Amino acid sequence: xxxxxxxxxxxxxxxxxxxxxxxxxxxxxxxxxxxxxxxxxxxxxxxxxxxxxxxxxxxxxxxxxxxxxxxxxxxxxxxxxxxxxxxxxxxxxxxxxxxxxxxxxxxxxxxxxxxxxxxxxxxxxxxxxxxxxxxxxxxxxxxxxxxxxxxxxxxxxxxxxxxxxxxxxxxxxxxxxxxxxxxxxxxxxxxxxxxxxxxxxxxxxxxxxxxxxxxxxxxxxxxxxxxxxxxxxxxxxxxxxxxxxxxxxx
Length: 250
Ligand SMILES: [Zn+2]
Hints:
The chain is an alpha/beta fold. It has one domain: 3-Layer(aba) Sandwich (Rossmann fold), CATH 3.40.50. It is built from 8 helices and 6 strands. The chain has helices at 8-12, 38-53, 83-99, 115-128, 145-151, 164-173, 201-204, 218-240; strands spanning 19-24, 58-60, 104-109, 133-138, 185-186, 211-212. The protein has a 4-stranded parallel beta sheet with strand order 2-1-3-4, with helices on both faces. It has a two-stranded antiparallel ribbon with strand order 5-6. β3 (104-109), α4 and β4 form a beta-alpha-beta unit. The protein is globular. Residues 30, 38-39, 111, 161, 166 line the site of zinc ion.
């Protein structure tokens, strides 16, 4: 069920074992060739497909688009929810779900800058509701390494920013929003000399993207998208069935 399309009575009548799925994205620069809402569009597309596969088992929430994006604010149009306020918005959303009796909640993330704050929000929520199943992960984490190896041609076999992977996903899902003629391989010369440095994208890229965007194709995007949807769907099914936690011998 899609929360935003349902009535309150339809939500009232839902089985409380239903998994509430909260996508989190951003509205931040994605180089010269992708739109600002890229992360939100991509994670929303994965989550929507998961809901379509499990309409009776998943309650899909609207995506939180105002992410933690302070590292992109040098680029026009980028919006930063700020880290603490962002984490609080996720925690408050999870708290509303608990108020309505939902005890299976999962945050599906589309923006790396949100990751640690999603973790904070989920840990606070779990502390408040120890019996609940609560989790979070990026949608990209469900794509297995061997598929990434054979799908991505560039040397970076994961997701960066407005990169080969993200641009491919956008070419598959929203080709009309991709300015492929402006794509460039960017941010490749920078290797932070000290682990843990906090840096901004205007310090390490020319035009905001990070990775091999010029290698992107819609076909690669389709393969990555389908793998992510399959992985997230299986995970939500497992949570719905109450088998998220296995005894150690399994
Ligand atoms: Zn992105």
